[in-house]
Design goal:
There is one protein chain. The protein is mainly beta and 237 residues long. It has one domain. The chain is 4% helix and 38% strand. It is built from one helix and 31 strands. Strands 3, 4, 6, 9, 10, 13, 14, 17, 18, 21, 24, 27, 28 and 31 form a 14-stranded mixed β-sheet that branches. It has an eight-stranded parallel β-sheet with strand order 5-7-11-15-19-22-25-29, with no helix packed on it. Strand 1 and strand 2 form a beta hairpin.
């Protein structure tokens, strides 16, 4: 974040960090939650050395609820030491919500199985976002989020509704020029891309959606739908 100095230039604005006491989980409605909430317009920072605290909460099955935060580092779930199911998928049993926040690094949930609701609404992913092969057991909320450096949902399986309404897929930075919005072979009961903006290549090759909504979505670069299917009862025989 930046603000103008007295000479009209820009200077880095200091962001307050979450206090140590705020990383203590609390019981909310019978669930243990790592809740890190700042205030709108006054975001707080999660330093890279605090990200393992998020891993610990996920590993222990607690919910993670982050709002109005700036995460200064990479999120790699392979570092979280998660239990795996019989198919080798890492299991996240708690709810994961990172909303109205910024992630200033890579976000990697590749091959993860989300058993509860997942929410990244209105969050800005400044680095690569990798959800390839992930399974979303409940509603997945990405509405209003922004992907600045490419995102992969290739072979992702959304068991319920996947919400990408108003999501912005920006043209990838030069260092990520080979990345784009990748939904190849993804599956979803219902997916909503209404009002989404694709300023990068969008690839839906062989994707399968029970219901797909693209009302007023804008594609400013190439979009591939080769082999994409609408999943209905007659497709499942």
């Amino acid at each position: 974040m930046a603000r103008a100095d007295i000479y009209g230039g820009e200077m880095e604005e200091k962001i307050e960090s979450f206090a140590e006491r705020e990383y203590r989980s609390q019981e909310i409605d019978g669930r243990m939650v790592l809740k890190l909430h700042a205030e709108r317009g006054n975001n707080k920072k999660i330093e890279a050395d605090k990200i393992p605290r998020i891993y610990a909460a996920i590993r222990e099955g607690r919910d993670v609820d982050i709002r109005f935060a700036v995460i200064e580092g990479d999120i790699y779930t392979e570092l979280a030491g998660l239990e795996k199911d019989a198919d080798g998928k890492a299991i996240i049993s708690g709810r994961i919500t990172i909303r109205e926040s910024e992630i200033n690094g890579t976000t990697e949930f590749r091959g993860v199985k989300f058993e509860q609701e997942t929410g990244f609404a209105l969050t800005c992913f400044r680095g690569i976002a990798d959800f390839e092969g992930a399974t979303f057991g409940h509603i997945a909320k990405f509405s209003g989020s922004t992907f600045e450096a490419g995102v992969s949902f290739r072979k992702a399986n959304f068991k319920r509704t996947a919400m990408f309404a108003g999501t912005r897929f920006k043209e990838s930075a030069p260092w990520a020029a080979n990345l784009y919005a990748d939904y190849r072979e993804a599956r979803s009961e219902k997916v909503d891309f209404s009002r989404a903006s694709f300023k990068t290549i969008a690839n839906f090759t062989e994707a399968g959606f029970g219901e797909a909504i693209f009302i007023t979505a804008r594609f400013e670069q190439a979009a591939a739908f080769t082999g994409a299917i609408e999943i209905t009862e007659k497709n499942c025989g």
